[in-house]
Amino acid sequence: MTLKCFNKLGIALTALALLILPGGAAALRGLPQDQAKQSYTMAEYNAFQAAAGEKDAAQQIKLLDDFAAKWPNSTLLPYVYQTYWTNYTQQKKYPQVIQYTEKYLALGDNVPPENRLQNQLQAAYWHSVAFELAYNPKDPNSKDYLTKGRDIAVQGLQRLNQLPKPDNLTDAQFADQVKKPVSNILYSADGFAELQLKEYKPAADAYRALVTANPSDEVSYYRLGVALLLEEPPQTMDGFWALARATALKGPVQAQAKDYLRKRMSAYEQPGCDSSVDAQLNEMVQLAANSANLPAGYTIPSTADLQKIAQSSTILTVISDLKGGGDKAKMTWLALCGSEFPEVVGKVIEVKPGTDSVELLLYTGATPEEIQAATTPNLDVKVVGQPEAARIEKDDGIRFSGTLASYDPDPAFMLHWDKAKVNPEDIPAEKGAKKGPHKIPPKKPS
């Protein structure tokens, strides 16, 4: 799965300025130039100084290329690699940033001991900044690319934990101005790599660390939700909540997060009506806008939960549950909306013939006596493809089958039906035809 990239350049530059001593020419400033005391020649020193001091980006790359070709084993190569990735970062040439940060890190301990930890962390940081931006899912070596990127990010986090606090910063300043912004970049690269590698549990761990540190990071909430729902077993409610939070924050992934959340909720519940999912989704997004954490006890029903309700429901229990309102009504409607009921019995209160359909307003109740006594409807039945239903008269008792489409809650309760068919035995004969009895006593609903 390839997820949309977001430019991270410029993030935590203040942290890097505090954290990392500059490389390149500045790193060599003040070093002895006596060849007898150095592992590089004066020619190497002067060539590198010329390259590091060059202001034109293209010309600097040419000088660095010339240096690397002429002195491929120079002890100055760590500084050369630092200058390379600094140049390419400024040019936004991310594959080359990846290339030279990896070259630097491949040197291991064969780099100058001065500020080794900081410089290796700097390389891991800039590798992680460029990592997602340089990712090409069509590259046949993409798995190796992702694995290496993940490993470098994890190693960077380990080095960050080993980093001593500068004397000029308090503990709080060090945590907020250095460790937090640098770890954000490293966790982001780690999470992205794990997600593409389908290692969903560690991906979720990385993104959870990001949203804990940054409760308004909608991109990380979106990716956290994806990872949680793809875990085995899925972390369903936490995943839904992360996607709802990403949607509520109204950032660049709002539409993407909402669409994915809707699809996953629909698959989880499999309700009969799409509108039911929309109502739940909107409720969850509103709640998530005010809280980064899933409220205790908050849940939505699964397909199995809804099937259990559907299997034990009758038209009378449906009406009772819906009129009662609250969570019971929500659950019942999720389970039954879009369901077809056969042989529903009711008394006709009003007939509204139409061009393409006939609308019947009926009342149904628990007993024939209750039905016969009714004067106001509780069922709105749209009969389609059965024009002869227009012959039905007020106070007729009929049986019909139909699909539950919507309902109006109390105090003006009405259950709306679509695609209904009346039992042909209950439709009066045409004028002039032999009439059979059609004013049947309503049967007790099942």
Strands of the widest sheet, in order across it, are: 1-2-3-5-4
CA distance, first residue to last residue: 50 Å
User: What structural category characterises the helix and strand content?
Assistant: alpha+beta
Series of secondary-structure elements, N-terminal to C-terminal: HHHHHHHHHHHHHHHHHEEHEEE
Biggest sheet overview: 5 strands, mixed, barrel
Structure report:
With 446 residues, the protein is of the alpha+beta class. The chain folds into two domains: 13-288, Alpha Horseshoe (Serine Threonine Protein Phosphatase 5, Tetratricopeptide repeat), CATH 1.25.40.10; 301-446, Beta Barrel (OB fold (Dihydrolipoamide Acetyltransferase, E2P)). It is built from 18 helices and five strands. It has helices spanning 13-19, 25-28, 42-53, 57-70, 77-90, 94-106, 116-131, 142-162, 171-196, 200-213, 218-230, 236-248, 254-269, 274-288, 303-311, 315-324, 326-336, 368-373, and strands at 340-353, 357-363, 379-384, 397-408, 414-422. The chain has a five-stranded mixed β-barrel. A hairpin with a 3-residue loop joins strand 1 (340-353) and strand 2 (357-363). Helix 11 (218-230) runs parallel beside helix 13 (254-269). It is elongated. Mean pLDDT is 89; it is low at 1-14, 20-32 and 434-438.
What keyword list fits this structure?
single chain, 446 residues, alpha+beta, Serine Threonine Protein Phosphatase 5, Tetratricopeptide repeat, OB fold (Dihydrolipoamide Acetyltransferase, E2P), 2 domains, 5-stranded mixed β-barrel, 18 helices, 52% helix, elongated
